[in-house]
TrEMBL record:
PANTHER family reported in the protein's UniProt record: HTH-TYPE TRANSCRIPTIONAL REGULATOR YBHD, NITROGEN ASSIMILATION TRANSCRIPTIONAL ACTIVATOR-RELATED
Keyword terms, alphabetized: DNA-binding, Transcription, Transcription regulation
Keyword Translocase included in the entry's annotation: no
Coiled coil residues, start to end: none
Domain HTH lysR-type, chain residue ranges per copy: 14-71
GO cellular component term, pick one: cytosol
Protein name, UniProt field: Transcriptional regulator, LysR family
Length: 326
């Protein structure tokens, strides 16, 4: 069989149900759980996997005592399956929105630091102009939004690159800084202090983002420069909302974007500690997939982000002022 005939045969045999199974297997590494995820019986899932591997002409997974591990060619195939399934899902959702009289769909990945200001203003303006455009916002941290962009689950993202080689896959346009502050609840013993050093905070409980996030990497770098070890009493939490809830319920410290905690500080739920931190965190911006033009709604949204980002260069460069308790 020549190469063209083999390609046609592969295309004719592969179905989107096969792609769904591959994505489920990649997520679970277990045939039974993957079968449940796509609503088929386990024997059917096993037969489908056998058909897929026969169509490709190589094994996608190695079966061993630890479960199922993708082969090197399997990793490439699974990445394609995830992209293709995400594209189909978004196409179907967009088509359904238009069928019901809407104006399509825009899906954006965004870090929480951009949400209270830049993202909120851009989305509000967009929805005022196009009320029937369905807008979806996903993610919280840069590592999450970059993964969403890589999996083609979002049209574009607001965040920052998280590894040195990602510039090969994504374009980055800087928009604004993201000042960080250390915050505690209003009943925390530290709020009576007019000054505090980083080493004095190490014995307190901390809530921090996962080590894969740029803010956490920066936090660890600041500790290293100060000759300090990671706090022993530390809770990792990827959710900003959950972090805020934790802070309000016990005497923990967290490093969070100023824009996220601003209203909590003004509402006297949290207090910013009198210490500067995180100045070297790079600014966030627009992330897009290289070599892939944006659809018109996404391109228009980028224009709104650029317009609303201008005031942030001068107005939001300083952290919240610390006000000691009286």
């Amino acid at each position: 069989m020549n190469r063209q005939a083999a390609t046609v045969a592969l295309v004719n045999r592969l179905k989107f149900k096969h792609l769904a199974l591959l994505v489920a297997l990649d997520d679970t590494r277990n045939v039974h759980q993957a079968a449940d995820a796509i609503n088929v019986a386990q024997p059917s899932a096993s037969r489908m996997l056998g058909d897929i591997e026969e169509a490709f002409g190589f094994l996608l997974f190695e079966r061993n005592a630890r479960g199922m591990q993708p082969t090197p060619l399997g990793v490439v195939t699974l990445a394609y399956a995830r992209r293709a399934l995400a594209e189909l899902t978004r196409f179907a959702e967009d088509l359904d929105v238009k069928r019901r009289g809407g104006h399509g769909q825009l899906t954006v990945g965004a870090i929480m630091g951009a949400a209270p200001d830049l993202l909120a203003m851009a989305v509000a303006s967009l929805k005022t102009e196009r009320p029937l455009l369905n807008v979806r916002i996903l993610g919280e941290t840069s590592d999450q939004v970059v993964q969403l962009l890589h999996r083609r689950e979002v049209d574009l993202a607001l965040g920052r690159l998280t590894s040195p080689l990602q510039h090969n896959d994504f374009s980055f346009e800087p928009l604004a800084r993201e000042p960080l502050v250390l915050v505690v609840r209003v009943r925390h013993p530290l709020i009576s202090r007019s000054s505090v050093a980083l080493h004095e905070l190490m014995e307190w409980p901390w809530v921090a983002q996962p080590i894969t996030s740029p803010a956490r990497v920066l936090f660890e770098e600041e500790l290293a420069r100060a000759g300090l070890a990671t706090p022993v009493n530390l809770t990792e939490c990827a959710s900003i909302f959950a972090t805020l809830q934790l802070l309000e319920n016990f005497d923990a410290i967290a490093m969070l974007p100023e824009s996220v905690v601003r209203d909590h500080v003004r509402g006297k739920l949290l207090v910013a500690l009198p210490i500067e931190i995180g100045k070297s965190l790079p600014g966030f911006g627009i992330l897009t997939r290289k070599g892939e033009p944006l659809a018109e709604p996404a391109e228009h949204f980028v224009g709104l982000l650029r317009r609303f980002s201008q005031p942030f260069d001068t107005e939001h460069g300083a952290p919240l002022a610390h006000t000691p308790a009286h």
